[in-house]
Amino acid sequence: MVIYIDTSAMLAVLYEEDTNHTQAIQAWLTLAQEGTELVCNNYVFWEAFALLQRRYGLEKARALQECIAPLLEIDWLGAEQHAEAINSVLTANRRNLSLVDCASFETMRRLRIETAFTFDEHFKEQGFTVVP
Description:
The chain has helices at 7-14, 21-34, 42-56, 58-68, 79-92, 99-111, 122-125; strands spanning 2-5, 37-41, 72-75, 115-117, 129-131. With 132 residues, it is α/β, with parallel strands linked by helices.
């Protein structure tokens, strides 16, 4: 099974005081035991790294790079995917729907991934199944 992993899940796995940490760890362990392939795009990875570094320090960013990144398939977005994500943000005309979210939806649709490991409600709104 292939599941897309979102920034919110990465933060919850790595930051013990995150309100979703317990759920995230349980889901992480289940996905690992099942041999689930985890995919994200470079925008999500960049966002997670930047937020971890800024909010919680370089050690959390290092943990993302050393502990989680080796387990991920990272889809590198090019100019075409970037333009599609920008168009999605502008078309949606919603201030709280981010470029990273729209890039994630584009990646999931392009790669035919139906499920996301996330705590972001936007994925449900877009019709994706979410874990946990």
